[in-house]
Design goal:
With about 300 residues, the protein is mainly beta. The protein has helices at about 1-25, 25-30, 115-120, 250-255, and strands at about 70-75, 80-95, 100-105, 125, 130, 135, 140-160, 205-210, 220-230, 235-240, 265, 265-270, 270-275, 275-300.
Amino acid sequence: MRTGARRAALLTFASLLALAASLLPLGLAAQQPATAPSSAQAVEALADPSRPAPAAVPYVHPLYRKVDQPAKMTGRPEATDFETKALLALSLRIEEDGRVSDGTAVEPPVRGLSAPLAGLLPRWKFDPAKKDGRAVRTWATYGLDLDLELDSAAFTAFNLLPVGPEEPLAAVPVESPGEQWMLRYPREVEPKDGSIVSIEDVDFLPAPKKVSWDWDSTRLRSRVTALVLVGPAGKVEKIVATGASFEPALLAWVRLMARTWKVSPALSGGQAVESWMTLDATLEYDLGKAKERAKRMFKKNLRGTPK
């Protein structure tokens, strides 16, 4: 009797649980127990409205130096004559018959050297490039080694000022020694043209057949922008070109003239210290001589965007 009574009580309790479950709302009955968040799960932090936002860090030019007395140019610099040797590299589109149908100077030592090309190129003639035994169309790289003379020069504008704390960062173009600058250009011609074979893929380079270089003395104007490091002795120790591009011969000329510039160095704590300055100068001059010493062909494509 006692065992039967216990069994009846258990059956009654189970029936009550089933009834209670049937009376719950459908959604609530189907819910699963909530699981604790995993320790690997990121918990988003809420902003504390009572805490002030962190202060913005003000921009300061990385070359700015706070000093008691900034460096200062004393007197106006004199422009001197300049002689140098330089390579004028030309990218020429040479057709299968050896005609030059287009061309441009690439990173010329002086931009003014491009002036006579429009009249010269249509008269030039080459033996064409060859690949697999046949003449092909290509963008060839032709170089003229020139003796240059720049004279009768004068600075028509000259500003050499300390780098300020809020001065914007200037672009610094790549400066490569010798002819290594050519390595920054792609192997393939850009934009792509299926009718043109890269000069780096031809079997035989074009050969100059009827190519003459002429130059008449020309008055030119060039602008030079740069960062200038002035040492404690007031001497210019370094000049770094700034801007999208620069004229290599002009930069070399300015560096040579800078050896004679008179600058009062910056002072800090009673001691002369090095500091950076910005240069913005305009130079007018005669390019009186651009004499050809030699001509060369390069198996390096210069038709494209440099790295």
